[in-house]
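Quarterly update from the structural biology core.
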Amino acid sequence: MHYHFFPVEVMELQKEIQKHEPLLKELMLLHKDSNQVDKITAIATYCDVVLDGVYTDEDLLKLCSILQNKLRTKRGELVLDVVQSLSQLPS
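Predicted structure, tokenized:
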């Protein structure tokens, strides 16, 4: 028997999405059959994050953390400086 767990970054992003009703509705209605990368792209669009390039699995996990912080900011919470995280993504 094999268990496949989602990385912490993905789980934390999912928790934050639950607090954003418009995004949650969009994901449920328009992206219910989409793969994880397509869903992350939709979340990035919602957060006004422009994606360009080829991303590794590690890059996608960093992106999940960045998007989680962006969503928290949309809710008005104080967050760590996202600029440092953005600089770690490939250009």
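The chain has a mean pLDDT of 85.
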